[in-house]
Every structure is written in C-alpha cells, then in structure tokens.
C-alpha cells in the first residue's frame, strides 16, 4: 500500500489551529559554542556572540532538508511578544512551567494529550499545540519519512500569520546532507543542541547576505533548543523550540523539552506502529481479495488483468506492465498500463534478439531502483529506452513459478523514491500469487488443449470408449464404439459380456481368459488385439484399459478405449509380404523360377485367397509356372490345370499381358465376363468353384518388356481387394521383375566370364609356343656370338631382348594361371620340398634384380625347412614376393626370415623398408588386377599377389601383409607342413 501519510507536505493539514497553537512544518537549531551538552543558563554572563557558524545553525533549524528525523523549533522574539500579548485567562510560560509542580502538571497534560490519538498527524499537531506558548514562542516538528527524507509535519507560532513563513523557510532552504550542525546533527547523532542566547547585532550582520536568517530573526530566534524524538533506539525526528527573548531557555527548560520529546517520541512511535499495523491489515485484505480474484482467472489475460489492476491501485505506480516469458526467452506483453508504444514494441522481443539487448537478465530476486540513475547504472544497455520513458523510480519483479520464471512485472514512478521492506514484501507476494495463477492457467490451457485433441483423435481416429461396471453388472459403450462394431451409433448400456459375443471365434478364448484374469487380479493396465465380426466381415480392434479396485481391494470397474486397426493390420501384412518375398527372391538369384512357388505361397498367406504366376514363353505365349490357394483341395486343382490353354480372351491375365497394364475385376464384372474368361467347360467349372470376389492382375515388366503376369484373387469370407492392394501388388511385381532380369543378366555374365577364361587359356597356350621358339633362338644367337668371339653392341642388345622375352613369358604365365584359377583347373604336384633351400635358390637367381635396385639383402633362414608342397608353385610365390620387395623398396634393405611356430606351422617373412602401402589399399591388395600404387611409375598388371594368394590358399596356407606409408611392408607366408585332407583349388 502506498504510504501517503508519510509523504512530504508544505501546507498545514487539518482544521485551522487555535490562536494559542498553530501547526507548522519543520525547524532546527544549532548547538552552543561550548558543545551540545555545555551547560548554559539563561542568566549566565558572557553568552557567546552569534558567529556565521551559529547563524547557519539557526538557518538549519528553521529550514530542514532531506535528512531523516523530526524537529520542533520554538522561536520567540521581543517584537513578537509585544505584537501578540498573552490573551486574558491564558497561562503564561513562566506560570505553567516555571515551578516544579507546573512542570509535572505540564508533562501530565502532555502525556494525556499525546496518548489520546494513534494518528501520526494528530500526535504531531498536538505536540506543537503543547509547546506554544506554554514552553516557547514558536516551534516546528520535522519527521523522518521511510524514504529517508526530512518533512516538516507540524508547526505553531504565537502569531498564526507567521506559520506560512515557517513552511516557506523549510521549503526554500534545504538542510545540507550529512551536516554537522543543527537539525542534521540531531537527526544523525540523536544528541540535542542548545543555544541559550543569540546576539542580535552579530546575527543581523550575518543576515545581510542570508535572507533566510532575516526571516528567522523576524520569527524570533534569540534562544534555541533542538531535541531529538527518539524511541526504541532510533531517531524519529526533531523537536525545535524557539524563543524571541535572549536567555529565555535554561537547563531546566532543556530537561523539560527532552522529557516532552521522549514522551512525544513514544506517542509518535505508537502512531507509526499503529499505521504500519493498519497498512499490514490492508495489505492482507488486498492479498485475500487478489487470491479470490485469481482463483476465478482461468487464462493468462485474466491473471494479468487482476495483477495489473491491483498493483496499479496498491503501489501508486504510474506505469505497470505484466509480461509473459516463454521457454525460448521470448517476452510477450499480457497487460500494459501507462507505457508508450515504443516501450510496448521493446517488450515484444523477437526470438533472434539476444536477451542482453532487451530486458535485464532474469533472476529470482526483484530489482528495486530508487531513481533512473540507479537503473541505468545497473542496466546500461537499456539506458536510452529508460530515459525516453522519463525519470523516477523503477522496479522489476520476476513472476517466479515452481520451475522457472513465468514472466515479469515492471513498475515505474514519476519521482525518485525508496522502497520500504513492507512494500517490497507486499509486491513480491502479489507477484508470487500471480506466478502461481499463471502456472494454473497454463496447466488449465494444456489440459483443455489435450482434452480437445483427445476428442478430435476419438472422432477422426475411429476410436471409442467402454466401461464395465461390475457393481451394477452392466457394460457401457459410447456411440463411436457401437459404430465401429457395426451397430447403431448411440450410447448403450448392456449386460456384462455382450462385447465378448461379437469376437471372432479364433480370438474369443484368449480374450475371455484375459478378461477373467483382470477381474480376479489386482488393479492394473492391459491391452490386447483381436477381431470382431460385423455384417461386412471381420475387423481388427486394439483395446487398452485399466481395472479399478473398490475400498475392499477387489476390482469393481474396468474402463478403456478401443480403436479400429484393420487398416494398420492390412498394411502390416502387405509390408511383411514384400519383405518376405524380397528375402526369398534374393536367395535364388541364379534361378528365380524356383522361388516363384514360395512367393505365391506368401501372397496367399498374407493378402489373397489365391495367386497365379504366368511367364512369357519364347514363342510369345503366356505359360503358367505356379499357383497357390489357401484351401488345399483348390490348390491341388490349380496345380493340375497349370498346363491348360483354355483361358478365354477376356481373362484378366491375358488382357494384362497384352496391354502391359494393371487389370482389376470386381465380382459383378467377373460373373458377366465368365463366358469370355473360359473357353472350356472344365475351366469354367474350375472358376465357378473358386468363387472369386475380386481379381487383380499385375504385369511383370523390365527394360520395356513384359516378362509375365501375377494374378491375385479373393473369395468369401476373405475381404475384397482395394486400391492399397493394387499398390502392393505393383511393388511385388516390380521386385519379381527385377529378380527375373537380374537372373538373366547373371546367367549372361557367367557365360561371358566362361568365354573370357576360355579365350585367355587358349591365347596363353598359343602365345607360349612362339615365345619358347624365340627364347631358343636368342640362346642360339648368344652361343654363336660367344663361339665367334664377337663382343660388342650386339651382345648388349641381345641381353636386353632376352630379358624382355622372359618378362613377356612371365606375363603370359600369369594370364594362363588366372584362366586356370577362374576355371578351377589349377593343379598342384606335392612333394617333399625344402623351403629354406628353395628361398636361397630364388634369391640367387634374383641377385641382379636386387643389385640394380640397390637393395642390400639379408637372409635369416634355418638350415632346412621341409614340408609337403608344390615346389614350382611355391617358387612362383617366392619370386613374386622378392621382386615386389626389390621394386617398391628400391634403395632400402630387404630382409628375408623363416621359421616354425609352436603349432608346427612354417612361416616366411619378406620385409622391405620402401614406400609402404596406404591403409585403404590393404583390403584390396590381393584382388585380381588390383594395384596399390600408380601404374605409370611401377608398371605391372596387378596379378602377382592375386596368383600368389590363390596358390598359397590351395596349399592350405595364407599370406598376410602389414604396412604403413613410408615405413615399408612386411609380407608373411604361413604354410602347414602336411597337406590338408580337403584342399580344393578356387
């Protein structure tokens, strides 16, 4: 609640004061030169003269500023005393307070008057009436507001016309903050100030340049007392007493004023406590009203309206905004009062704008800013927008819910102010209630939305609800469920077990057993799938439910929902058919026709009653290759009629084959075309016995050619085929067509490979003959040159020709070996072979190769290493490995090692330190015509390692390679000593 009773005012409040006591606003005095507590009597000689410091103290006494406290100033002047003589019958100050008895009477009357009211303005006004003119010529009461300001709350003067002057002094000459004299010192320290005598001459000299001093002197300020109003250890204000007669106040008057101030402070404190209690009561009542209003608010807009209205009325703010905060950080105005369109646009922050550029970071604690400067210092990024909204205090209160900040409450005031703890607590309590209401509204909206979605799902998703009441022995169904069961679409109440009577005979036993089990067992959830019988056939249903127990723990109710899943089941069957058919066709790539009977059986098991498969014959006719039916007797009759040619021109399969388009025939159309479908009585009798309700023929097409036809048909009680079945049948025909085409291409490829291998074999044999003759002629020429003693360029060219012929011979041998491997004709001649000696012989023959490659060769071989192997083939493997090491390890050492491992397996390792092999080339290194390096730089056909692996595997061993780029390669040959019992050449 706004604390209006503590707001500053420069005008007298309430009824006009009586002549003897006029309410004024503020006053203050300065301490004597000897200090605050220096004893100075009224008749004491040598009263200190009024210096500039003393004059300032007097000025502060009559013009309090923003410091906290209350001050009562009592001033009396000889002029004022002369102008306003005491009224007849009015007791004088000396007669009322001069004696001890008078003082006690005065304090007693003061206590009675001050305790007669708990209203703060009334208490302060009564205090001013008490001291004028009984104790002083005029006075002022300055009170400390909760915001820390000094406000003149009451004043009195012997001359009522001068009260406005007292207010004017307080308004125009503010007290310096943290001052060390007068009212500032009293409010800050809680110590009184006492100036018994103010020199007129020196005061007038100081007042020449200070108009405020002249005003104070006119009011009367020859003797001054400043007494703090202190209660419960805190200063509530200052009581300033002024007299127009020098030396008017003495120590006794000071003690009396202090006692009066103590009693007045107690009354003022009680009034403040009473006011706080009333404000707390009002806040509690408002919170209760807000709670009641929020309980009726079921939406965000209604909650924001309640909050904005209550905060507007309770806080005194001129601008109020309630913003919603989404989970993605987007702010959305719910209610805005007093803000400009520019601020409203800033409140609606788009998602792509960073939070740091819009509103302050969201915290759990509220932000209270007494002035615009404090807000700008805390959030400089919003300074420009805040300044355009005007000066004054700000508050940002988060609407913090159980899990996150739901929104923001923004408040603004036109002037600077502070926020008392009670006001903060009240506004935060309002915000907390609002955040809870926003969460409730969000939950309500979510519940409403989900309820609506559930209703829409039930309507559009072909779903219905049911409930079994075991106490009343009844079964309740809604209209949607009855419609799904093929019954009138109305809500119904039937005996328990009525639904079980509509189940498919095959599904009823297990569903009824489940129903009885849930009647006996503890409550729980259940679901099941089953078929129900309708007039138009069987339908699949999916039911979910829950059993509910009564007070005794026994099941008293079952409730749930049911959905028609017939379409889903049919789709699952179609998908499963395609998956199974693809698997069967993939396993028979070489002969698809052998897989077609199993495919037809799958079609019958999943979607159709019968299935026929026809393929195109070489003469262009259609021949039936397989047939299937759900009934074994009909399946046998269809198998017997496979070779028949008595199909009529209107048969769907023939029409589909000729046109290459899908043919779909309904039951009515099929009866009308029955004569055109069959050309013989036997075939017509077969068609009549099958009683098809729908027929679907789909062509098998590939590369623009029709390879055949697949025909599906259904009979009672099987459902008729629909459009979704046409799509499935076309997909099945596509897969069968692809399989047939792939099988044809596979056979053609095999034939081409066999032709190629035969050609390589014949070509290799034919090339060997002239190469052998050429080698013989080179040898004869070399011998003739040697016998003739002719050495020169001819001999060098002859050696080059011999090496090239040998290389060509090796290539031809490799081609011949590849052809033999492809045809499975690689022959092995096993004998006792010493691998160590065989390796030494191969190294000796290749000495020139290693010398030309600049590869130092190191042999680490045992003395003997024997086993049952083919020496010629094993020598071929060794030569391939050694020449590879010399080729790819040129300029680096080559190491050949051999030995026997623990399992009596012989191993031989050839290691080079050459260029190495990339990791991605290792898996394909031993493939046919595969290479791991550039052919331009190293040449070769990529057959050496392939042939070597085939030979080693034929001997029952294996070759492994380990290599990294730039670190060489290591080939390891492993061979069993004895021949395996079953080793077949690839």
- Uncertain segments of ≥5 residues (pLDDT<50)? 1-52, 65-96, 351-361, 934-939, 981-986
Shape: elongated
Q: What percent strand?
A: 15-25%
The helix tally amounts to: 31
How are the strands of the largest sheet arranged?
Answer: 13-12-11-16-15-14
On the 0 to 100 scale, the average pLDDT is 76
Instruction: Summarize the biggest pleated sheet.
Output: 6 strands, antiparallel
Class derived from helix and strand content: alpha+beta
Helix content: 40-55%
**Using only CA atoms, what is the Rg?**
57 Å
What is the count of β-strands?
A: 28
Intertermini distance: 99 Å
Task: Please describe what this structure looks like.
The chain is of the alpha+beta class. Helices cover 45% and strands 20% of the residues. It is built from 31 helices and 28 strands. The strands form six sheets. A six-stranded antiparallel beta sheet has the order 13-12-11-16-15-14, with helices on both faces. The model is unreliable at 1-52, 65-96, 351-361, 934-939 and 981-986 (pLDDT under 50).
Summarize the helices and strands and which ones pair or pack.
Blueprint: H1 52-62, H2 78-83, H3 93-97, H4 100-114, H5 120-131, E1 138-144, E2 150-157, H6 163-172, H7 182-189, E3 193-195, H8 200-207, H9 211-219, E4 223-231, E5 234-243, H10 251-295, H11 300-315, E6 319-325, E7 331-337, H12 341-347, E8 367-369, H13 372-378, H14 383-388, E9 394-400, E10 405-412, H15 421-460, E11 463-469, E12 474-477, H16 479-484, E13 492-494, H17 508-520, E14 525-534, E15 537-549, E16 555-564, H18 566-587, H19 596-606, E17 610-616, E18 622-629, H20 632-640, H21 652-659, E19 663-666, H22 667-672, H23 674-677, H24 681-690, E20 692-702, E21 705-715, H25 723-788, H26 793-823, E22 831-834, H27 835-845, H28 847-852, E23 857-860, E24 866-869, H29 871-888, E25 894-900, E26 905-912, H30 935-938, H31 944-954, E27 958-963, E28 969-976
Parallel strand pairs: 23-25
Antiparallel strand pairs: 1-2, 1-5, 3-4, 4-5, 6-7, 6-10, 8-9, 9-10, 11-12, 11-16, 12-13, 14-15, 15-16, 17-18, 17-21, 19-20, 20-21, 22-24, 25-26, 26-28, 27-28
Helix pairs in contact: 4-10, 5-10, 8-9, 10-11, 10-15, 11-15, 18-19, 18-25, 25-26, 27-29, 29-31
